[in-house]
Amino acid sequence: MLKIIVCFKWVIDEADIKVSGKSRELDLSRVAYKISDYDRNAIEEAVRLQEQLGGSVVAVTVGPPTAKQSLKDALSRGPEKAVFVSDPAFDSLEPAQTAAILAEVITKNLEYDLIICGEGSSDLYAQQVGPRLAEKLGIPCATYVEKIIIKDKELIAERKMRDGIEVVSMPLPALVTVMPTINTPRIPSLKQVLGAAKKPVVNLSAKDLEGKYEPCLKTTSLLAATMERKRIKFTDDPQDIRKVVDALLKEGVIS
Amino acid sequence: MPGVWVIAENSNYTLELLSKGLEIANELNEKLVAFSFGNEELANDYISCGADEVFVLPALNRELPFEAYVPLIVAEAKKEMPEAIIVCATQRGTELASRVAAGLNTGLATGCISVRVDKGNLVMERLVFGGAAVQTVICTTRPQMAAIPPGTYEKAQPREDRRGQIKVVAGNVETKVKVVERRKKEQEEIDLTEAKIIVSVGRGFEKQEDISLARELARLLGGEVGCTRPIAEELHWLPEERYMGISGKKVKPDLYIGLGVSGQVQHVTGIRDAKIIMAVNTDENAPIFDAADYGIVGNLYDVVPKLMTEIKAALNK
Ligand SMILES: Cc1cc2nc3c(=O)[nH]c(=O)nc-3n(C[C@H](O)[C@H](O)[C@H](O)COP(=O)(O)OP(=O)(O)OC[C@H]3O[C@@H](n4cnc5c(N)ncnc54)[C@H](O)[C@@H]3O)c2cc1C
């Protein structure tokens, strides 16, 4: 029986970010939130392993109180329990803090054989929380994993590297961070969505933590990455298309 | 003198970091330290390329992964207390850097697109929100750490007159993680980052065979075919080396032509440096039109043949 912990983050949907005027400032006033993309793969993988091998899946997230909305979404994807560590100060944690908080919460509250994280979050994409957490817990880890096989108390993972695939093995307990190519997350059924509300959630706050987790990084600016483009639109009629070809010739980009 | 350390999984990447490391070490007024893994000969190369000191770590058994060095590097850093550690952000490098940072309770900025020094701090820029924004960070703890992707800097050049020290670091390399197999990737024969014209295939294509349409257009223009991530990673219609974006290739062609590409920020981030962007999409509200110089609202199956006719006429082909 495998005890699995899956960590996820509730993030801004980057597709909703607007830029305010010419200032390059980000306008976040109308953004929706989502479970970070690769964390959906992490949850899916945890649930698939549980389906294959039996055991349990607990989903853990650290964030501001508004991230409460994420719990139902996460639980509808299959885990049977969630742990929600929240505080208004957890609004813009940097990876060193998130990993240290997770390490304390997991050590004190949860048993595990395997911890699964996404390779990186779709907002900061620091790729640090998984390996930092493994280091804090003193367990082996494999990052950038595309395939997981578990045999007895051994984990075999295929890591996708720049230069090819590296297959590694390690004893459990262990931590893996998964790539989006590892699986295709299922869409929760209506029954699962309804059932999620009834699943248990353990709520913890900063007061329940012993450690003081100060940031090691300071953000000094956050600006839109803008691009100057002409943004001229044409229709599909041949005359318009000829205009586009003429423009490309004039720009000197085709010859 | 605590030093600026550069760490990379192979010698080419170490040389790239040495050229940036030299600049950073000068500005911080620190010595520059490079790491050589089980190879004393390389240590001399690193010295002639700017390292004041090279730490030579024991060679790895073949079944051990590069990250097995984490405990040794952490122990060494606790003794020497370097001012800054710069790591080449391959996947292995990023894992190693994260774990070293955790072991030292210090901050790390990964995926840096630029690093400079200001008042003793590394000022590090990185992309966030899928490339929609640039975050600038500094590290408030020491050592300050940055992970910078390979290919960001030119390799440092050797100079005869440089001298430095070699320090052999002894110790056991131990880890519970064993490598059981390595499957090398076949190299693609083309390098999309060098292409002058790229015709990009998006999910607007209905079938794999239809990519021939993009190929014909590319051939007519003397360009290459590239794609979005789902075409490569999900549908496997084209090799991974051909997809562009924040997690794929960053390209800089004179002309990028997106066909059936929606233009999500993660893709657009890879084509920001294109001189001209042109796009064909049926949806007039597709985000690609905000990123394009010339947009044609229409069905690619109808527009591409017409476009080829016009190009042939204009270029007398
Ligand atoms: C963390 C993260 C990293 C990512 N990294 C990358 C990356 O590096 N590169 C990347 O490409 N993506 C990346 N993605 C995925 C990205 O968000 C988009 O999902 C992807 O780029 C969309 O690909 P597409 O444009 O081919 O498909 P779609 O978004 O499905 O768009 C298809 C488009 O084709 C149009 N269309 C349909 N039929 C026709 C027709 N007959 N003629 C003309 N137009 C037609 C549609 O209007 C639509 O706009 C990443 C995502 C995440 C979460």
TrEMBL record, chain A:
<protein>
    <recommendedName>
        <fullName>Electron transfer flavoprotein small subunit</fullName>
    </recommendedName>
</protein>
<dbReference type="GO" id="GO:0009055">
    <property type="term" value="F:electron transfer activity"/>
</dbReference>
<dbReference type="InterPro" id="IPR033948">
    <property type="entry name" value="ETF_beta_N"/>
</dbReference>
<dbReference type="InterPro" id="IPR012255">
    <property type="entry name" value="ETF_b"/>
</dbReference>
<feature type="domain" description="Electron transfer flavoprotein alpha/beta-subunit N-terminal">
    <location>
        <begin position="23"/>
        <end position="213"/>
    </location>
</feature>
<dbReference type="InterPro" id="IPR014730">
    <property type="entry name" value="ETF_a/b_N"/>
</dbReference>
<dbReference type="Pfam" id="PF01012">
    <property type="entry name" value="ETF"/>
</dbReference>
<dbReference type="InterPro" id="IPR014729">
    <property type="entry name" value="Rossmann-like_a/b/a_fold"/>
</dbReference>
TrEMBL record, chain B:
<keyword id="KW-0285">Flavoprotein</keyword>
<dbReference type="InterPro" id="IPR001308">
    <property type="entry name" value="ETF_a/FixB"/>
</dbReference>
<dbReference type="Pfam" id="PF01012">
    <property type="entry name" value="ETF"/>
</dbReference>
<feature type="binding site">
    <location>
        <position position="203"/>
    </location>
    <ligand>
        <name>FAD</name>
    </ligand>
</feature>
<feature type="binding site">
    <location>
        <begin position="228"/>
        <end position="229"/>
    </location>
    <ligand>
        <name>FAD</name>
    </ligand>
</feature>
<dbReference type="InterPro" id="IPR014730">
    <property type="entry name" value="ETF_a/b_N"/>
</dbReference>
<keyword id="KW-0274">FAD</keyword>
<keyword id="KW-0813">Transport</keyword>
<feature type="binding site">
    <location>
        <position position="281"/>
    </location>
    <ligand>
        <name>FAD</name>
    </ligand>
</feature>
<feature type="domain" description="Electron transfer flavoprotein alpha/beta-subunit N-terminal">
    <location>
        <begin position="4"/>
        <end position="189"/>
    </location>
</feature>
<dbReference type="InterPro" id="IPR014731">
    <property type="entry name" value="ETF_asu_C"/>
</dbReference>
<feature type="binding site">
    <location>
        <begin position="260"/>
        <end position="267"/>
    </location>
    <ligand>
        <name>FAD</name>
    </ligand>
</feature>
<protein>
    <submittedName>
        <fullName>Electron transfer flavoprotein alpha subunit apoprotein</fullName>
    </submittedName>
</protein>
<dbReference type="InterPro" id="IPR014729">
    <property type="entry name" value="Rossmann-like_a/b/a_fold"/>
</dbReference>
<dbReference type="InterPro" id="IPR029035">
    <property type="entry name" value="DHS-like_NAD/FAD-binding_dom"/>
</dbReference>
<comment type="similarity">
    <text>Belongs to the ETF alpha-subunit/FixB family.</text>
</comment>
<dbReference type="GO" id="GO:0009055">
    <property type="term" value="F:electron transfer activity"/>
</dbReference>
<dbReference type="GO" id="GO:0033539">
    <property type="term" value="P:fatty acid beta-oxidation using acyl-CoA dehydrogenase"/>
</dbReference>
<dbReference type="Pfam" id="PF00766">
    <property type="entry name" value="ETF_alpha"/>
</dbReference>
<dbReference type="GO" id="GO:0050660">
    <property type="term" value="F:flavin adenine dinucleotide binding"/>
</dbReference>
